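User: Some background: our group keeps a shared notebook of sequences we're curious about, and every so often someone picks one and asks for a predicted structure to add to the entry. Today it's my turn. The entry only has the sequence so far, pasted here. Could you supply the structure so I can complete it?
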Amino acid sequence: MRIGILTSGGDCPGLNAVLRGFCKCAFNIFDDVEILGFTDGYAGLMNKNYRTLTPADVENILDMGGTILGTSRQPYKLMTVKEGDAPTKLQTMVENYKKLKLDCLVTLGGAGTHKTASLLSVEGCNVIGLPKTIDNDIYGTDITFGFLTAVDIAAGAIKRIRTTADSHSRVFFVEVMGNKVGWLTLYAGLASGADAILIPEIAYDEDKLAQFIKDKKQNSRSVVIAVAEGVVSSREAAMSKKERKDYLAGFGTASAAERLSALMSQSTGMQCRSTVLGHIQRGGEPCAYDKFISTEIGAYGAHLAKVGRFGVTVCVRGNKLSYNMLVDIAGKTKRVPSDGQLVLLAKDLGIYFGE
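Assistant: Of course. Here's the predicted structure to add to the notebook entry:
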């Protein structure tokens, strides 16, 4: 069997562990298998840039952050765009899939990667998706590999901020990755004892947030607020796209935490500071759980290839591995329910959500 494998989109902890799990399992369960590792994601398939992977290539990569194959972002919306007489990116990949005589293509990636994988599947390619993202927003799965490592990193940073906030009696806004969903911010905020958690799914009220900070500060030396990068105020939520664009332009390149820090400093008269965690959440060695689940997901993907189960993506349901059809989950986002169990738990603990 000739299998192509690639890592696409933003990097995250566990990519190499999944790659290792898939390859080691495939080398053992197939009588005859060749695995082509495409360089820099879908770009490698477009350009036929690959190398044949051997057992030695994946032997010692379980603990490694990043991806030994490299990755790149190939926007889904450009996959079917026609430029003159040249074939589309999708057509090029389908043609190269055939030219290379692949029996299967395995894609490690997030939402955008899955949408492109679904297109390839519809075009007749045998595709298996393996879900990765620190955002944990892949529809139809309880958890994605890389997520809990990012939670560890973000929660640890928030706890460190607490000590300096206590020392200087300040208000801190700590920005966590999550442009469209707040899973990472919610988990990290709960795990670090944040006083408030602001996520994209729940619009915050600026006046009420200012009052919360004032009230909290009366009985505490510090206030630490976990903020998702894609958070919006109720005022912004009521704006049109153009109005919001113009409004945000007034803050220049300031991040969500930086904007909130400036606004709340003015509203409360208190010293407010901001910290943007950024790409540190995506890098480095995966935690023990992510090493385990990544290995399991990779091996499960190899077994799916063995039995010819294509057009699917692996998922975790109740600590058991299964799969969803790519066409059923592509383009869908798993958002934090505002009345979900974790949000209600946080509120029971006295954590504020800005409403």
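Suggested note for the entry: The first strand starts at residue 2 and ends at 7. The chain has a mean pLDDT of 95.
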